[in-house]
Design brief:
Elements lengths: L2 H10 L4 H7 L6 H8 L7 H11 L3 H5 L4 E10 L5 H24 L15 E3 L2 H14 L10 H7 L2 E6 L4 E10 L5 E7 L4 H16 E3 L5 H13 L2 H8 L8 H11 L3 H10 L5 H13 L22 H11 L5 H8 L3 H12 L1
Parallel strand pairs: 2-6, 3-5
Antiparallel strand pairs: 1-4, 4-5
Helix pairs in contact: 1-6, 2-3, 6-15, 7-10, 9-10, 13-14, 15-16, 16-17
Length: 354
Amino acid sequence: MIGHKLKVARAAAGMSLRGLAEVMDGLVSAQAIGKYERDEDMPGSRVLIALADALGVTEDYLLAKDEIALEGVDFRKKAGSSTREEATLEARTIHMLERYLAVEDLLHLRSVDWEQPRSAPYPVADLRDAEDAARSVRDDWGLGNEPIPKLAELLEERGIKVMSLDLDDIDGLAAKVRRGDRDAARVIVIKRSTWSERKRFNLAHELGHMVLQVMPGIDEEKAAHRFAGAFLMPADVLRAEVGANRSSLSLGELVALKERFGVSVQAITYRCKDLGIINQTAFAKLFKVFAERGWRTAPFAEPATMGPELEEPKRFERLCYRALAEGIIGEARAAEFLGISVRELDARLDQVAA
């Protein structure tokens, strides 16, 4: 039966039952499609082909039995986001994950299980414990204290699926991924258009949620924020750069630090306050300046801003190219995995070859 796959593909495409029926030129009614999704009926071959065509998938995809589900979904969203937007994003995430995991299986890659740090989960009874947890993750993963140049790539190397999607009122999500009787994988979705400094902090924040065990009475979001700051800007390195105690920080100095650590000026200022490098008065003065310059609101036009493309996950795309080059899949399947046309795939391959 195709119910689950059909419903996910339709939701991922942002279509209602009626909208899908209209795209199919009335070949079947919205009520009939609803029956297919509830597994109360099965479409004939002609309708199955039309459904696949309308949704931009193959008939094999709709007929495949393998199903995955998201658990413990945590959205990063604005106040105005709707339940429908959340449901659509979940479906899009599942839809892309199915392709991601499928190409891994085709290449016989054992990377579904994420490489959880040896000492995790780290209990957090005080926000300073999140600081220690970040240091332990760096130690367990052999990262040293230097800034991390490509965080999305690092997390993918450790088995966390990082996906970038075009989003509106939701900045992304993090969740566990269940597939059959396999151990849970992990996924983080980020907003493609977001500036890379924010992407990096969001990724580190979600990693914090994965490895911290927050005790009652501790704000989980604040703990994840403290972890993210400590993970991206190790205390010893930052103190070596700016000193242990300062009465103020100049904007030029903050911008130079931003270029070193790949985080926003505001994140650096918060970090300096958390470490006691500056006091609350100096912190408030700086944030007043940030607000006056428009850095606190969209488009967050800080100096030396990193473009969105600088922190984009690329592993899935590389795996698709590899499977194509090794003759495991053809161009049509590779284009389907990537969610593009065969013409666009050819253009990308020409660009890579050049």
